[in-house]
Design goal:
about 80 residues; about 0% strand
């Protein structure tokens, strides 16, 4: 019998729990790609279909901001926090 949850869905759930994100959001997709080792430039290319025509700078800034948040989440936590 086939599993009801695909590997992709399981991975999305893991990343959502890890970073406390909502499922089915662009932020989750971006964080997942960063976790898989993609650079911000590669993420922008992969997710280019999400970009609204005429808003390239806004889209790029969003990816850059998400990268900053993702990097901050990678920093080791201080004891007791």
């Amino acid at each position: 019998m086939r599993s009801m949850i695909s590997r992709e869905e399981k991975r999305d759930i893991e990343v959502a729990r890890k970073y406390k994100l909502r499922l089915l959001t662009m932020k989750l997709a971006v964080f997942r790609l960063f976790d898989e080792g993609y650079s911000p430039t590669e993420v922008r290319y992969i997710l280019r279909d999400f970009e609204v025509p005429g808003y390239h700078r806004t889209f790029s800034n969003t990816i850059r901001r998400y990268y900053s948040l993702w990097k901050k989440a990678q920093a080791p936590k201080a004891p007791g926090k």
